[in-house]
Amino acid sequence: xxxxxxxxxxxxxxxxxxxxxxxxxxxxxxxxxxxxxxxxxxxxxxxxxxxxxxxxxxxxxxxxxxxxxxxxxxxxxxxxxxxxxxxxxxxxxxxxxxxxxxxxxxxxxxxxxxxxxxxxxxxxxxxxxxxxxxxxxxxxxxxxxxxxxxxxxxxxxxxxxxxxxxxxxxxxxxxxxxxxxxxxxxxxxxxxxxxxxxxxxxxxxxxxxxxxxxxxxxxxxxxxxxxxxxxxxxxxxxxxxxxxxxxxxxxxxxxxxxxxxxxxxxxxxxxxxxxxxxxxxxxxxxxxxxxxxxxxxxxxxxxxxxxxxxxxxxxxxxxxxxxxxxxxxxxxxxxxxxxxxxxxxxxxxxxxxxxxxxxxxxxxxxxxxxxxxxxxxxxxxxxxxxxxxxxxxxxxxxxxxxxxxxxxxxxxxxxxxxxxxx
Amino acid sequence: xxxxxxxxxxxxxxxxxxxxxxxxxxxxxxxxxxxxxxxxxxxxxxxxxxxxxxxxxxxxxxxxxxxxxxxxxxxxxxxxxxxxxxxxxxxxxxxxxxxxxxxxxxxxxxxxxxxxxxxxxxxxxxxxxxxxxxxxxxxxxxxxxxxxxxxxxxxxxxxxxxxxxxxxxxxxxxxxxxxxxxxxxxxxxxxxxxxxxxxxxxxxxxxxxxxxxxxxxxxxxxxxxxxxxxxxxxxxxxxxxxxxxxxxxxxxxxxxxxxxxxxxxxxxxxxxxxxxxxxxxxxxxxxxxxxxxxxxxxxxxxxxxxxxxxxxxxxxxxxxxxxxxxxxxxxxxxxxxxxxxxxxxxxxxxxxxxxxxxxxxxxxxxxxxxxxxxxxxxxxxxxxxxxxxxxxxxxxxxxxxxxxxxxxxxxxxxxxxxxxxxxxxxxxxxxxxxxxxxxxxxx
Lengths: 422, 443
Known about the structure:
The structure holds two protein chains of two kinds. Chain A is of the alpha/beta class. Helices cover 36% and strands 16% of the residues of chain A. Chain A contains 15 helices and nine strands. In chain A, strands 3-2-4-5-1-6-9-8-7 form a nine-stranded mixed β-sheet, sandwiched between helices. In chain A, 60% of the residues are buried. The model of chain A has no long low-confidence stretch (mean pLDDT 96).
C-alpha cells in the first residue's frame, strides 16, 4: 500500500510536458510491394534520417532541439551496429556536440526513449528533446531473427525455448487461455483482433499491411496452427510483423513550444505515466494475465487522475493477438477470461466502444521493435490533433484521453502513457 | 537387414550430375536424419558420392551446403528437438549449422569407383547408356561382398534387362527421380520381374520418407514418363513435317510448340521441353525404346539437328543451352533454321504463326494462371468446350494434339506399361507439371 502511494506521488508530473512534430516512416517488410529481401534494402541511417529530419523541420530546425534520445533494441545484432546516439549529428549538423543517448529495453525501447525525453523536460535539462525509435530487422531471415529477438528473454531459457522463441512464449500463454476459457471462444477473439488490425492498416499509407487485399480476414485468421513448423497454438496471422522503420517525435516543455513558435493545438500533453519492471528470470505467476502491464496502466491512469472511461483511443502492444486480448483484460475493459468476447463483439474496432490500434498496431501497421513505443505516441498525437487522415476517428469531448501501452519482453518492461490534446 | 542399416553405407554413381546431385542431397539428408533422430552420430554413415570429375564433385559439395542449409532453415522446430540433449547448441543458427555439418559429414566425395565395393545400396545416375550401366553394376556386384542393392535412375532401359546382363539376381529396381530430384514430387518405381521383394519394400519406404508421390510402372522400355513423352514428340514432329509442306520448317516448329504450350495449357512447348531434356537425350531414349519395342520410334528431324550440332540440354548451373531454340533468361529468342544453319529471330516467325493459327478461345488462360486457378476443372471444361466449337487452324491442330495425347495415355495402359490411366495422368501432372492429365473427357 505504502509503495502504491509512493508511486502515485512520484508519478505526478511536476511540470507540463508536451509532444509534437511526430513522424512515421513506412513500416517496411513482407506485405509492402517495394520490399525485396534479396536486394540491398535501406538501413538504420536511412530510417533515422527520414524520421529525424521530418520532426526537426516541423519544430523549426535543430537549433531548437536540446538533446536526442534513440530507442533501439538490437541493432548491435541485426545490423552489427551499436552506439546509435552518435548518429544524431548525421541527421542534422545542428545536433553536433549536443547530448544524445541510446536506450534499450527490448520492444519497450521506444517507450523508454520517450520516458527518458520526458524526464529531461521534467529535470529541466532540456526544453525540447528529439526522440527517435528505430529498428531494421529484415537483415536476416525470420528463423535467425528469432534468435536475435530472443534476447528480450532470459538467455538460459533459450535452450529449451521454441525455435521462434517469442511466438513460442505467447503460444504458451494462448494455450493456457484456451485451457481455462475454451479454444474456439478464444480464437474468435484472435480472429476479430486480426481483422481489426488489417482493416485499420488499410487506412494508413505507412502501414505494412496497407495493401492487404484479403477478403475474408477472419477466415484466414482461423487457419489451423502448424506445430511441426511453427507454434502449437498460434499461426502466423496471430503474430506481429517483422519490420524495418523509424518513428520520431519531439518532447517539449511549454517554453520549448513557445521558443519554436508551435501553437498548443499542434501538440498533445502527457498527463500521466506509468513504468513497471518485472524479474526477467521468472516465469509469469499466471500465464493468462499480463500483470506488469496491468500495474503500469494502473500507475498511468492514477497519475493522470482518470479512469478507463475517459479514454477515446488506445495504442497497445499486440505483438500477438493473444497479447491484445490479455491487454484488454489488463487495462480493465474486460474481466479475466472475457477479453476474447469483448474483442469478438467488436468493442475494440474503430467504431466500437474503445477504438484500439487505429492504424493497425503491431500486427497491421508493423513492429519495428525499438521504434514501436514511439510509433504509438505518434499515432495518438495524430488522432488527438486531427492529423490521422483516413484513419482519423472522432475524439469525444467527454473522453478526450489517449493511452499507449508499450511492452518489452514477455510482460517484463512496461511503459504506459496518458495523452490529452493540449 | 533393416532400412536404417541399409542406409549406413551407400554409393551414388554419377553423383555430381544434375540427377545425381539431387539424389545425393535427398539420400544424405535421409541418412543423417535417421541417425540424428535416434541420438546417434551421423558420421557413422557413409554416402560415397562417386563421379569421374573432381571439379564437378567440388561443385556438388557447394550445392549440398546451400541446399541443406535451406532445408535446415525450414525444419528448425524439428532440429531443436533432435539436438535438445546437446547443451552447446542454443540458438537456431547454432543448431542449423550443426545440422548442415552433420549432413555433409555423411557425404564422402570420390572419383574412385572402388568406394562402391563396401556399399549396401548403390544409386545410379550415370548417362543413359545400357552397356555402361551393365558394366558398372556387374563390376561392383562381383567385388562387393555385401551383395548390394542397385537403384537405377534410368528413365528408359528395362530393369530386367540390366538385371540379367549384369547378373544381379533381382537385386535391382528402377527408382526414377524427376528433374530436379529435390523439388519434383514424382517418383516412378519400376520393379523388374523376379525383383528381390525386400528391395521393393526398401524403395517404397525411401520414397515415402522422401515424401514423394509414388507411381508404380511396369518394366517396359520408356516406362510411363518417357513412354508418353517420346510418343508425344513423335506426334508433334509428324504434324510439323505435314505443315512444313506449306510453310517454312521454322514456322511449323514454332506452330507445334505454341499448340502444345499455349493451346494445350502446358508449362513448355514440346520442342522447348525437348531442348530442356536435350535433343541428344531424347534421341537416345527413343533408340533404347525403338530397339526393344515392337514399334518404330525414330526421329529424323532430331537427327538432322544433331548432325548440325544442335543438342540443347543444360549447363551445370541449370541454365538452358541453345537447342532447337535459343534462350535468354529462359525466354525463347530465336529458332534454329536447318536450311541456312543459323538461328533466326523468333518475333517475325511468331507473328506469322499467330496469324496462321487464328484467335484463341476467349476463356484461355496461360498455364501459370491455370495451375493456380482454384476452380481449374470448370475452367478447363469451358476452355475445351469453346475449343471444340472452333474451326480455326489453331483449334483443329490443338484438338488433334489433345486427342492424340489421350490416345497415347490409354495405349500405355493397353500395352501394360501403366497399371491404370490415373497413373499416366499422375505422372504427366506431377512429373511434367501438366495442368490436367492427358486421359480426360474434355473433348
